[in-house]
């Protein structure tokens, strides 16, 4: 049985914000954002809202809501999600998504896959996983400068697609877009924030890194990703904050998602796993240096990163880990690219590429679960690194270092690593900065790097939305 997805041509906008503002009044809106027009790396944006089914995992329970009925399950969340995805493989040639799952898989969902200690404090109320089954989406193709409303009626026969078509119609969207733009302009001060503060003093950060290095010396591990958290109080509309952030740090694997419990603002430069036509690809980032203040300094920094034996070794450790992870569900695992330089507004990165062919009978969710969470934000070996993270980071990571993305009904998948990611929870907004610690890591350099990675995010919000300014 095929998935009879319909494509309806709709207006194309250089910025998908113009589409998102028109549907965000619906439940659980999500925007998978390539960062266009300011970022040149990405191609597609996916926007949707009002899922037919929602799955939210909190600890050992996943709460499923469908057709107004709620039930709970202790089943593995990845396995449970698979039961709500269609088992058909009918692709839309020109688009990556034909309806399916959109949402996030938080770092702490890894506790459902591995037996980990429970030491860090859990002080964020967002679910460990929040995924919706969305039978429609607006997909913008920035390469072809075309936009489509994708409707997959097979996924939710009773869904009110006529209302979605009305909302996306030319007449409705032109009037609403004008009204919404005026509203956003008039509400520029409706987001306010206090200054961010780290949850670790310098002495505490230093002590934790020394402990990591002691574990490495003892042979427990080769690398551990360690992070500090920056938190502030906020009030107002988090979407206004996201619009400012994407202007300051356009990133190819960004995302914005709203749910009852809060919001996720992700400005991620890193792909976790992509699956297209049964070919898997992961692109770990390891190795970072700040952009220079002058062109000459910037070029020198880039060359220093490319020549750094420490950063190349750190990157190679994670490449080996991901080769092993992909091998669980893939054959012909290869490394077509090592240590490629990618440059963003705030930093240069070293990025490698690992690919594999999905084994017959395996699904996108099998691939995701067998590799989750991503090795680039845990360390090597993965489980021992996660145990050390749990011991030394005082609070749980929640969505940070998990993944946001889509799993399409046609079998495609693309997910990010949720770094450069902020979480709104109650009246608090949180952001993490971290890095991979290895045997020859220098504590002061690692501390400054963890700040450099998120400095542009924190300063953008403080400078534009400071409570002191208002």
From TrEMBL:
Annotated source species: Cellvibrio zantedeschiae
Primary enzyme class: transferase
SUPFAM superfamilies recorded: ADC synthase (SSF56322)
InterPro entries in alphabetical order: ADC_synth_comp_1, ADC_synthase, Anth_synth_I-like, Anth_synth_I_N, Chorismate_C
Domain Anthranilate synthase component I N-terminal residues, every copy: 20-148
Residue ranges of domain Chorismate-utilising enzyme C-terminal in the record: 204-453
Designated gene of the protein: pabB
UniProt keyword list: Transferase
Superkingdom assignment: Bacteria
Enzyme nomenclature, EC number: 2.6.1.85
Protein name: aminodeoxychorismate synthase
